[in-house]
Design goal:
Blueprint lengths: L6 H4 L7 H16 L6 H4 L5 H13 L2 E2 H8 L3 H13 L3 E5 L7 E5 L1 H23 L3 H18 L2
Antiparallel strand pairs: 1-3, 2-3
Length: about 160
Amino acid sequence: MEYNLHDTTTLKKDILSPDEREVWVLYMKVLTSAGLGDVSEWMKLDMSMPQMKVLMLLNNHGSLKVSEIADSMGASLPNTTGLLDRLESSGFIIRKPSEIDRRSIDVSLAESAKSIFRGLYEQGHEKIKRSLQKMTDAEKEIVKQGLTILSIALKD
């Protein structure tokens, strides 16, 4: 899939220098090409954007308390509870009392949601593997070094 450079990804022209913009475009091309930007599986689901955000939060953080989900999303507890009710009835999340604090409810991904994420990552893994197989050992080392440097810089 060709990366479509448009105004939502480049933002204001004065934010990035020409070199920084080139890095940004390459970064977005890699993400999109690796399959992690492919939303076709998500589009098949009868799910709202807030529901998708909850699943992404849980995928990134594991189990979260209802209050942590509400805080992360900037939503009220009643709205978050309604959102979680719909996700639970669809079989995407599991809610259970916290083992540490019985007043709290822990929320985690159900196997059906985990399989969606696994499918997305599997597509990305396969594309990366095919791409790396086309490279020489020296090229793979350059890619690894560049990604390591970028990863360290992004931690700040």
